[in-house]
Specification:
By secondary structure, the protein is α+β, with helices and mostly antiparallel strands. It is built from 20 helices and 11 strands. It is elongated and about 80 Å long. The model has no long low-confidence stretch (mean pLDDT 94).
Length: 407
């Protein structure tokens, strides 16, 4: 039995990055031998075990063969005869197909270290094209390591293009797709994830609503970058730079989808794009079964982001409706995330990345003013039921009028 550290732990050590998760591969062992040493089995499809003390994953060396469509369409074979090189060749990228023994001796049959130095994301073998999930994974790695100068090798991008055109991407489950998308959005440069998907044709398959934004112009006075797709990437870039949450980043990606529906004869204006985009945002949310908080914020930001930009001009009654829509009294955090998404939208414009956004503090102040209304005095005055609701609304409106006058 020989045990090797594999994959990301080896890659990140060689890159000088902190190693968090460690995966191990075991060569020359049987399931019975692993169980005898106290390892706990967890793999449903192939033999993976948890170490009895560390809890880290140990997998028996295995080969795989394509047997059906999609990410799950593989037959695995694990036995003591499977070599380390045979196990490594089934992996996605050369930089993920290296192994180390306990003396840090490197096994690198597919030149992963060379590609690390060349800053290339390159597939290990033609079998790469058998797994559609790898299109998303490579785009995610591109987003993670873009800051180090990594790019996708042209021949790998070509295989990704073939996969995108093959219909295999449609076989991906919503859960697997969302896992990759959500992880990619939380990388340092999530806009690179979208760029790479677009370059290989996967974006128009997975998110045609986002792909449709590229080439759609906006008024130059508000958007010096002009192109709506470019603007969306810039907003996503700002969201990452400002360490925003996944919910905010998802909303940033989808906020302008309505602009993709504007007839060409109306360009570069996009009247009522906020409302038009809601059905598209809903469709993308449902396609990937995004978590409820991501779905809700994306829809609210899509509908109200221009309200956020015009906050200082809004009438008190419109401001109150906005606050009610977000349920700021019971869910203050969601309104904070809305403000953050609006600010990222304002900053995601060429040359305006450092602009101030006074609307943020103004909206926070408005929410505080509306929340300051005490219900008890109204109850003591005999209001109840629907009448109480109307009385609270009147008092909140009064507070917002005062706030606007003093702001």
């Amino acid at each position: 039995m020989q045990i090797y550290k594999v994959g990301g732990a080896v890659r990140d050590r060689l890159l000088g990055k902190p190693v968090t998760d460690i995966d191990w591969v075991v060569v020359g062992a049987t399931t019975e031998e692993m169980l005898a040493k106290g390892f706990r089995p967890v793999g449903a499809d192939f033999p993976v075990f948890l170490h009895p003390k560390s809890g880290e994953e140990y997998a028996l060396a295995r080969t795989e063969r394509k047997s059906g469509r999609g990410y799950g369409g593989f037959t695995f074979h694990a036995s003591p005869e499977v070599t380390l090189e045979e196990d490594l060749i089934r992996r996605d990228l050369t930089i993920n197909a290296m192994a180390e023994d306990d003396q840090q001796n490197l096994t690198d049959p597919y030149h992963g270290q060379r590609d690390l130095e060349a800053r290339l994301l390159r597939h290990v073998s033609p079998a790469f094209a058998e797994d559609p999930l790898r299109v998303l994974r490579v785009a995610r790695f591109a987003a993670r390591y873009a800051g180090l100068g990594f790019t996708v090798a042209p021949e790998t991008l070509e295989l990704m293009r073939q996969l995108s055109e093959s219909g295999e991407l449609e076989a991906l489950t919503a859960e697997r797709s969302w896992k990759e998308i959500s992880r990619a959005l939380m990388e340092d440069q999530p806009q690179v994830f979208i760029q790479v998907l677009r370059e290989c044709g996967a974006l128009k398959v997975l998110m045609p609503e986002v792909d449709a934004l590229f080439g759609v112009p906006q008024p130059e006075a508000h958007h010096p970058e002009i192109d709506t797709g470019v603007h969306t990437l810039s907003v996503l870039e700002q969201a990452a730079r400002h360490k925003q949450s996944l919910t905010v980043r998802w909303a940033c990606l989808l906020h302008d989808l309505g602009k993709g529906l504007t007839p060409k004869e109306e360009w570069p204006r996009h009247i009522a794009h906020e409302h038009k985009g809601l059905k598209l945002i809903k469709a993308v949310n449902e396609r990937f079964k995004a978590p409820k908080d991501c779905q809700e914020l994306a829809l609210l930001v899509g509908e109200y982001h221009t309200h956020g930009h015009r906050a200082l001009e809004l009438k008190p009654s419109t401001l109150l409706e906005l606050l009610q829509s977000f349920d700021v009294y019971r869910r203050p955090q969601r309104f904070e995330e809305f403000i953050a998404a609006c600010e990222m939208d304002a900053r995601g414009r060429k040359g305006l990345e450092q602009r101030s956004y006074p609307q943020a503090d103004y909206l926070r102040g408005a929410a505080t003013a509306a929340r300051s209304i005490a219900v008890q005095p109204l109850l003591e005055r005999g209001f109840k039921g629907p009448e109480l609701g109307e009385a609270i609304k009147r008092e909140r409106l009064k507070a917002l009028k005062t706030y606007k006058e003093q702001a």
